[in-house]
Amino acid sequence: MKTMEEIKKLCVSRRNLSVLGVQVGIYALLVSIWSLVIMLLEHDVDAAKESMRVNAFVLFLLLTVFMANFYLLVPYLFEKRSKVKQCAFWIINLLFILLWNKHIFSIYNADLPDTTIRIGFYQFGVMWTILNYAMVVAAIFVRYYIRHNTLRRQLREQKQKMTEAELAWLKNQLNPHFLFNTLNNISSLTQTSPNNAQKAIGQLSELLRYALYETQPKEVSLNGEIAFIKNYINLMTLRSGSNVEIKSEFVIHNSQLLIAPLVFLTPVENAFKHGVSGNRPSFIHISITEDKGEIIFLCENSNYPKTDMDKSGRGIGLENMYRRLELIYPERYQIEQRISKGTYLIRITIKPCRKTSPPKV
């Protein structure tokens, strides 16, 4: 009973019905083409009809051999990877082909006195058997091709799901990391400038609103991302002293460009974390420009690396950013970094996909 249910399920599957439709279409096409050729060559309607009858019968025998193997014998015997079942597969096929083509093999049942005719008949029998076995091999290869493509599609889908899960995990790491660093800066302001601290809390609420609610799509408007970075720079400027020079420039010609959310946040955070000294002149220059569809992020700042004693927000920032870029923009991004004479520079170039509006969530 279970086997019959499996056979029924196998026969009515969309994939197998598609194969059946293709085979029936090829069968009808071959019969029609051959009859048309006879009609054009012989100019005889009766000859064309007879040709259609004969070829319809002969090709039907081959089609049945193919379908019997594709639906039943190959999946239930050949693909089981059992030597006994595979041996049975070839024996059953031999018996099936001989019985199914009995009428073909017994056309010349009468005595054949002419040796040449007998030899021709034997040769025909051998060639017809080989042609039937060719249908068996064709059924094996068609099933293999379909199964191989199905496995490849499943692997692609699984890889896509794993990539999406990793990206979600990376972004979930990024938000607490950003919040921790921002609260750490506001904590310092509460001691040195309570008024600025109160203002910073208001700005932080705007940043959090964007980070938590506006970054849910895979890609967001570049202009929205720039507005977020501007707000973050303004928030960090409240804590910076008069000895810190902060410059920013944003030149975007295509307002429809999209980008992965918060992808430039880490280098901006690091610029304020490692580029500002409490008693020495410091600078931070940040720019985002667009050139021929490429997004270019540039951040240059004075370099005052934190000591081992400073454990504030260390560990996941840049590594997280590199991994996100690799997953979202494979072979469509470049990163250049260098440190020279107390200056750190990072340049990120991204070639985003050509889209005109943010994807729907």
Automatic annotation (TrEMBL):
Its EC number is 2.7.13.3. It comes from the Bacteria. GO terms for molecular function: phosphorelay sensor kinase activity. The chain crosses the membrane at residues 20-41, 56-78, 87-105, 125-146. Keywords: Kinase, Membrane, Transferase, Transmembrane, Transmembrane helix. InterPro entries: Bact_2-comp_sensor_kinase, HATPase_C_sf, Sig_transdc_His_kin_internal. One of its GO terms (cellular component) is membrane. Residues 165-242 form the Signal transduction histidine kinase internal region domain. SUPFAM superfamilies: ATPase domain of HSP90 chaperone/DNA topoisomerase II/histidine kinase (SSF55874). Gene3D superfamilies: Histidine kinase-like ATPase, C-terminal domain. This is Histidine kinase. It comes from Prevotella multiformis DSM 16608.
